[in-house]
Amino acid sequence: MKEQEVECRLGCGACCIAPSISSPIPGMPNGKAAGERCIQLNEENLCKIFGQPDRPAVCSQFKADREICGVTNAHAMSVLIELETLTF
Q1: Among 51, 48, 12, 43, which Cα is nearest to 28's?
Q2: CA distance 37 to 32
Q3: Which of 13, 14, 23, 43 could be bridged to 77 by S-S, CB 3.0 to 4.6 A?
Q4: Within 13 Å, how many C-alpha atoms sit on residue 56's CB side?
Q5: Integer distance in angstroms from the first to the last C-alpha of the chain?
Q6: 44: closest CA among 5, 6, 12?
Q7: pLDDT of residue 5
Q8: What tens-digit pLDDT sequence spans the chain (88 residues)?
Q9: Is the separation of the CB atoms in 21 and 58 below 8 Å?
Q10: CA 70 – CA 64 distance, rounded (Å)
Q11: How far is residue 33's CA from residue 76's CA, in Å, rounded to a whole number?
């Protein structure tokens, strides 16, 4: 049985805040620390460089997942913080 795809919850932004990103981001040449808000995340928690070639590969490759994202932004943030802590 094929697992049902999950759509990214617009305005969540958890994946742009909770994890560290070691690759360069436009405006953040050294990447970002865990818990640091990405400079490319706008006021509505949408990525300003979504679909652009200079968006980091790690960001482009991240796919929403029911277990990670849950049904609330707070759930997504909590899970991503826990995963970041476990993989540090």
Answers
A1: 48
A2: 8
A3: 14
A4: 22
A5: 34
A6: 12
A7: 67
A8: 455 668 899 999 999 999 999 999 999 999 999 999 999 999 999 999 999 999 999 999 999 999 999 999 999 999 999 999 998 7
A9: yes
A10: 9
A11: 18
Distance CA 2, CA 80 (A): 24
CA distance 23 to 9: 24
- Give me the residue label for tokens 């490319």: 40
pLDDT at 7: 86
Type of residue at 9: R
User: How far apart are alpha carbons 37 and 53 in whole angstroms?
Assistant: 20
| Residues in contact with 37: Cβ distance below 8 Å, sequence separation at least 6, in sequence order | 13, 16, 17
DSSP class of residue 23 equals S
Token duo for residue 49: 């460089």
